[in-house]
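Exercise 4. Each item below gives a protein and its sequence. For each, produce the structure-token representation.

Item: Isochorismatase-like domain-containing protein (Trametes cubensis).
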Amino acid sequence: MASVVRLIPGRTVFFVCDIQTRFRPLIYGFDHVVATSRKMLKLAKDTSGADYASVLRATALGGTAPELDPAPLGKLFLGNYTKSAFSMAIPPVISVLRQHDFKSIVLFGIEVSGYDLFINKAQSLTA
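Answer:
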């Protein structure tokens, strides 16, 4: 069942997941995914939410779509991390989560439905 959750300004982290240039011709509606992701990054900035991006095997699949330039986020951008599996629970990300008092995570991008394991692991960090 869906529920509405209030984002806590400054205590929410936004994860941009695998929105990479190589996927553009392969994924139907990719431009809509990018457009929605741009709105999410604007929300991150407007709520002082931190942001970080992950890319899957960047050497083969390219970097994050250039329309999602993190520069406007300034110090809210926590980094861009390359990973080798469909998991965001990689050591540098876990380290960043432990350094901040985040209360919620907004996860968006490609293959987001496969990140239940990460969400469970992130919840265990705050328990």
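Check: DSSP finds four helices and four strands in the chain.
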